[in-house]
Amino acid sequence: xxxxxxxxxxxxxxxxxxxxxxxxxxxxxxxxxxxxxxxxxxxxxxxxxxxxxxxxxxxxxxxxxxxxxxxxxxxxxxxxxxxxxxxxxxxxxxxxxxxxxxxxxxxxxxxxxxxxxxxxxxxxxxxxxxxxxxxxxxxxxxxxxxxxxxxxxxxxxxxxxxxxxxxxxxxxxxxxxxxxxxxxxxxxxxxxxxxxxxxxxxxxxxxxxxxxxxxxxxxxxxxxxxxxxxxxxxxxxxxxxxxxxxxxxxxxxxxxxxxxxxxxxxxxxxxxxxxxxxxxxxxxxxxxxxxxxxxxxxxxxxxxxxxxxxxxxxxxxxxxxxxxxxxxxxxxxxxxxxxxxxxxxxxxxxxxxxxxxxxxxxxxxxxxxxxxxxxxxxxxxxxxxxxxxxxx
Length: 392
Fold this sequence. Notes:
Blueprint: H1 2-17, E1 26-28, H2 30-40, H3 46-56, H4 60-76, E2 80-88, H5 96-101, E3 107-109, H6 113-123, E4 139-152, E5 158-163, E6 173-181, E7 187-192, E8 195-203, E9 208-214, H7 221-230, E10 238-239, E11 248-249, E12 252-256, E13 265-271, E14 273-280, H8 285-288, E15 309-322, E16 326-339, E17 349-354, E18 359-365, E19 371-377, E20 389-390
Parallel strand pairs: 2-3, 5-20, 13-17
Antiparallel strand pairs: 1-19, 2-4, 4-16, 5-6, 6-13, 7-8, 7-10, 8-9, 9-18, 11-12, 12-17, 14-15, 15-16, 18-19
């Protein structure tokens, strides 16, 4: 079941990143939304059930089990933490079967906004501080998920200052990160309709990897992100060990280093970054299968309760940070349901990848392939003080 659920969750992420525009930094977590949709799918009827089933990518009859499998993975895998919460108005009677489909202890009585915000702070380890939906007297049910992902790099980066010679970051002093490794095949290039995309995989020590991806200067963010999401199941046109002197790719140059050791090396340089995002999921209701069940004019979720319900709000807040030592991200997603009416050389070959203009990132649980967070870095962190310089 978990393999099928991961495919469905990653497909949702792929559709979602296709909506991201290049203008600003943004990040999304399909893994944070997917379980909530999967819990709702078997409870919906008519067009709403069909749309939610298409969004989760597995039959509605299997969706709750798939949600439970994903939540268990996110709850127990090293470096990951997850929780599901549901708060119900005393006036709303839930169907026993739907209540039982949620994790044990997940359902509580409807609470004030401050209580829900405190749950977010607790479940996100303080990285986020509020529930992304606002409750009011018309809110009958809040269904939420929290996800935290943390890893430390198997080989840390060195902090420094990064400067760009050209492009949108030209002239800026960015808080840079640099690392050299002998594993050149951590780099791969993929051919896409938007041109070649270079993907650098940074390995965490607990089964969480972060892929960094850069395309041609005019490649849309959505195209680069899609390539990064698809990288594990796509065949690269070249890997880092296949580059020769003078070869190039987006962000990549190849030459010779110094010293007597002839082992090829991969040098990576990029800015530190933190991306924070808030998303109104109903703005892209068709991506999530929420078009019909967010129509409050009709009963659309009879499997939850006999009382007419609809999704009145759906939102996600997210923060993700990439530093010299590792990566961490926190995601909270919530739905508010309301009443409805129904070659050899004497010098070592050096493959150099420089991310000195906007690029994408994808954090992934390596054993299962589940995409945890995907985003676009439109601006790196600024250097706040003097430091060693490199790259430019």
